[in-house]
Amino acid sequence: MHTLHFIRSALLLLLSFCLGGVCNAQAAQNSAEPAAVVRGVPTERSAPVQAVAKADIPATARGSQGRILFILASSKVHGKSALPASISFGEVVHAWDTFRAAGYAVDFVSPDGGAVPILDSYVSADLVPRLKDAPLMDGLRNTARPAQIDPALYRAVYYVGGSNALYGVPENPVLQDIAMYVYERNGGVISAVCHGTAGIVNLTLADGRALVAGKRITGFPEEHEEQDAAYFKEFPFLIRRTVQARGGSFHAQDGHQPYIEVDGRVATGQNYASAKPLAEAVVGLLRKLAEQSPGRGATQG
After folding, report:
1. Residue 247: strand pairing partners
2. Can you list the domains of the chain with their CATH numbers?
3. What is the predicted pLDDT for the residue at 295?
4. Where does the signal sequence lie (predicted)?
5. Global pTM?
6. How would you class 35 by CB atoms within 10 Å of its CB: exposed for 0-12, middle for 13-18, buried for 19 or more?
7. For every residue of 142-185, which 3-state class applies, written as one string?
8. How high is the pLDDT of residue 294?
9. What H or E segment, with its residue span, contains residue 106?
């Protein structure tokens, strides 16, 4: 009996040890994933932000603050018409190249997820070879849906222009939450180029003010549109007029030369030619923020 009691006690002790080891191993695995922490970057949010669902991003990237989120439109037509619409391929490529060269990872999101429209007329001859760039094109064919995105991963958002940028993006509440989380909780940068500026006109700070209020903003102004064309009649709003109505100061120049405005952590570009200098300006802002917050610099991915 004593022998049997000893064996039973030993088995129970061994079982307890094994179960404790499994639990401790699982706890160690869970604690290996770092939490998003804002260090030394001033934020403008006083109320908590509701987190958006985590994206299907490789675990090795989770927790990194070296990612930039490209926000693109899904619409293939202008408004309710049958007029074809597209993202601006060059505004993707030139910014992608700049951000990647600076060591930042890039992800894509669109209202509907999946492939975004790319019309031939939006692909200049020098960029045709990039249509075979596998990493780039895989991203554009498989954009995430807004609910898949974890905004804690990103240091900046970049609103891409194109003729479809006024549809689906500006009024999407989840995309708005993502952008404002990056800006207010992560202390990150909001950027937009050309018609992509339409995406930021409805963004609102935690205190209720419009993001653009009191800021110098640029984008593709309505006076540069073909106002007698059918596509223009489909526009739900006008960029310059809406920025001004929200309290922003809109600036643009004549011609097709690059023109950007950087006001605090909001950076905007007027036209297609502004994509690269805008991306360079965003990189500059992120480097300054990284200097203020050591340990949150760029990550290659």
Report:
1. none
2. 64-292 (3.40.50.880)
3. 52
4. 1-27
5. 0.79
6. exposed
7. CEECHHHCCHHHEEEEEECCECCCCCCCCCCHHHHHHHHHHHHH
8. 59
9. strand 105-109
